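Review box. Two proteins, two foldings.
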Amino acid sequence: MYMEEVCRVAQGIDQGQVDKIVRILAKTRADGGRLFFLGVGGGAGNASHAVNDFRKIAAIESYAPTDNVSELTARVNDDGWETVFARWLEVSKVGSRDVVFVFSVGGGNAEKNISANIVQGLKVAKAAGAKVVGVVGRDGGYTAQVADACVIVPTVNPETVTPHAEAFQAVVWHLIVSHPDLKQNEMKWEAVR
């Protein structure tokens, strides 16, 4: 059943939004901008992996606040979980040449206090003129509301929203980073003949 759902999710991915993210990131690289990944839980793990891929394969300067556990936990301890990404983006001087890329199951929801740290981070990003893109599940939440481009992973079964959203974050970012308009460097196994 799960693999049948995977096929249905894959067929429902909006390729137009994927292509739009590719165009935004190509311009970001050309303009010398940076790419900041935000995610918590599985999204944080995906963010760390994506930083590697976008730096190594697409040659885009990329970072994730969750990669520095010392700074992250100091900010949580001193300032609170809700503002951790907002303060990190401010210190990073996020600006109009930059992109904030969100990996989230629900995209954040301030009213329900779900992933409020993503919501606050996106408010800082938008105020600074940065582009926002994302790969999110459910209805996309706050991320989809403010994003310049957003892939919403289709819900095919309400019992498997999280596994599909997190799995397809990886599928989509791999599609993006290996796109001919972004890929700068050959991946090892593709280069072995």
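Next protein.
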Amino acid sequence: CSSTLVALDCAAQASRMGRQEFAMVAGTNLQLRIDMWIGFCKMTGLAGDGRCKTFDASADGFGRSEGSGAMVLRMRAAAEAKKEHAIALVRGSCVNQDGRSATITAPSGPAQQRALQSSLRDGELRALEVS
């Protein structure tokens, strides 16, 4: 579920290291297997209203969705030299996985905090500067 973000992190890091001028990152998520839907229903993992409500005390499951997206990354200096308009800027990124979480549906809160802190350090940002 995070493979596109891992690809974005790899592309951003390679660009910062001067390994490439361009990178294309794309990802797709399709819900093609009915047995997965049935399994999530049996374990009551799906929210009744289909909304995740992340970090909210009223969270009661998650909502499944499909989607696809792609982006082209370019080194900032190269884009500025050609007077190209950037839609967004990847200031920092981080990927982590310790393999010791209880289950895939119970990720490690402290590990997620460390990843966010590492991303902020990588981008030389403070949390309040992120929008």
